[in-house]
Design brief:
Blueprint lengths: L6 E2 L10 H14 L2 H5 L17 E2 L19 H17 L6 H8 L3 H13 L3 E3 L6 E3 L2 H10 L3 H17 L2 E8 L2 E8 L14 E3 L4 H7 L4 H11 L12 H14 L2 E4 L6 E9 L5 E10 L8 H18 L13
Parallel strand pairs: 1-2
Antiparallel strand pairs: 3-4, 5-6, 5-10, 6-7, 8-9, 9-10
Helix pairs in contact: 1-3, 1-6, 4-5, 7-11
């Protein structure tokens, strides 16, 4: 069994974040340890395929100055206490085996007594669960109810989900719905096909826009200044030998995306995987999200690509129409 892993990156200050960023923050907490999302993998029984990445990298908020040092718990302002509690939730969510009070206090560089007070409160409210034997904390089920409430406000999911199910049934490929959040494309919905081949992806996974079809399908329709800011912030990591790593090449590829109506990730993010993505527009004609299909290079081949792209673009068009988008009418010149 080979698993394809990615990265999760939190770059904002959660106390003063937008509702949309808070929604994705909750996604990440819930889905990192979801038994459903983490158990799926690419099974190699019917298809011989090699994928590149087997690591799962997390960047802790403490590395980005979001965990502050206080000498006394009593000296904390209410906002500092809330910030610390959110940071604890994020750190615990990233630890597959859970974390003890001592480990959390070391990561945040705070006294154990200060950490203990907040941890007990989070445990009492159901946001954390403590293992009686090991004493380690894990994310509690209370977080799940928050995630469901946040998901309810994302109209594009409700419109897209039945169309995604039909598309997956039609193509036999994994279908993703993604949006742009800061510098990353983030999955907000996923539909898997029946069968042995599964992609180890999950709702809330953050993807680099320069190396993924869902990312390129979105950023092909944003201002170039915004794209340059994203690249300046995230860089252009060379995920595989096929990854685009320069701005001129990326701009040329995005021009092609706009012209043909879809983007291709041809083993640019993971060797052995090929993905296609198409943009979704809102009632104003602005890019809202992207729809993607992912599979192995054997599944998405030169022979199957035309049929897959036709189905993908048709599905993305129907989702856009469901969001109020109306394509410009083509002018027919009179003879």
């Amino acid at each position: 069994m080979v698993r394809v892993f990615g990265s999760v990156f939190f770059g904002g200050h959660w106390l003063f974040c937008s509702p949309w960023r808070l929604t994705l923050y909750v996604f990440n907490i819930v889905n990192i340890h979801s038994l459903y999302w983490r158990k799926v993998a690419i099974y190699l029984l019917p298809v011989k395929v090699v994928v590149q990445y087997s690591e799962h990298t997390f960047i802790l908020l403490s590395d980005y100055g979001l965990a502050t040092t206080m000498t006394k718990a009593s000296s904390e302002s209410p906002s500092a206490a809330v910030e610390r509690a959110l940071t604890m939730l994020e750190i615990v969510a990233h630890a597959s085996d859970g974390l003890s009070n001592a480990e959390i206090s070391r990561k945040l560089n705070i006294p154990k007594s200060s950490a203990s007070y907040i941890l007990r409160t989070l445990e009492n409210q159901g946001y954390l669960a403590r293992d009686a034997e090991s004493g380690k904390y894990r994310v509690g089920l209370k977080i799940l109810s928050l995630s469901r409430g946040a998901l309810g406000g994302l109209d594009v999911r409700g419109v897209a989900l039945p169309i995604m199910r039909r598309l997956t049934h039609q193509t036999g490929l994994t279908c993703h719905l993604a949006v742009l959040d800061g510098p990353d494309a983030v999955y907000i919905e996923k539909v898997e096909p029946e069968g042995f081949i599964r992609m180890d992806t999950w709702v809330g996974r953050r993807m680099r826009v320069h190396a993924t079809s869902v990312g390129k399908a979105i950023v092909a329709h944003i201002p170039q200044e915004q794209l340059e800011e994203i690249v300046h912030k995230n860089g252009m990591e060379k995920r595989t030998p096929r990854t685009i790593t320069t701005m001129p090449r990326l701009l040329k590829d995005l021009e092609k995306v706009r012209a043909q109506g879809y983007a291709v990730d041809d083993e640019e993010n993971n060797l052995g995987a090929r993905c296609v993505g198409a943009p979704i527009f809102d009632e104003h004609g602005s890019v809202l999200a992207s729809l993607g299909l992912s599979g192995t290079t054997q599944q998405v081949s030169a022979q199957t690509m035309p049929r897959i792209l036709e189905a993908l673009k048709d599905a993305a068009r129907h989702i856009s129409m469901g969001m109020g988008y109306r394509a410009p009418q083509r002018r027919v010149s009179s003879a």
